[in-house]
Amino acid sequence: EAGVVQSPRYKIIEKKQPVAFWCNPISGHNTLYWYRQNLGQGPELLIRYENEEAVDDSQLPKDRFSAERLKGVDSTLKIQPAELGDSAVYLCASSLGQGSTEAFFGQGTRLTVV
Amino acid sequence: SQQGEEDPQALSIQEGENATMNCSYKTSINNLQWYRQNSGRGLVHLILIRSNEREKHSGRLRVTLDTSKKSSSLLITASRAADTASYFCATDGWSSGSRLTFGEGTQLTVNP
After folding, report:
1. Is B44 on the interface with A (CB under 8 A)?
2. What are the tens digits of pLDDT across the range A55-81?
3. Domain spanning B5-111: CATH 2.60.40.10
4. Among A70, A92, B35, B42, which is most buried by a count of CB atoms within 10 Å?
5. Do B33 and A102 touch (CB under 8 A)?
């Protein structure tokens, strides 16, 4: 069974440019998470989807971040415009949902904003 | 905001020794989970303990949970160099709507 797939693995952009990350969760997983992880810290939740509905986006900086999960499967996370402080690893994870929170993570996208 | 706090922040031991990491959290939980992260990789689920459980084992891992103290510990017995990684606890609870919230992690180094 394929795991959570993220792309790209690495991205370097200049500040003020837009950037997008893509995530394909494990088939059949209803819950999808986007986390941001700064160096030496734990992951911080940005947004959580249950199927196609964003049920927890209170920590998403909505002035510059947006996300979508069309048809309740793949998801994209976008930053526009990027700032220097956005440099981090962006992790996507999925879980079965319906009370099951054991999360399976992708390899992450390491974003560097210069 | 982080729910959990791991202690210690960093731990260095010799191969064959046991490693103990602690996690404290703030609000009531449904479950507490432990994850491992190797450098530059995603997180891997290790073990889940429910709020009504006190101890759980999986291979060389032993997890305890004390809900009265809002704390958990992860014990890795007979450590190996391959256990070198960061270890995170994560909690979810009714008040958070099943949000999975991670602590800051413990960096474990096992020296050969």
Report:
1. yes
2. 999 899 999 999 999 888 999 999 999
3. yes
4. A92
5. yes
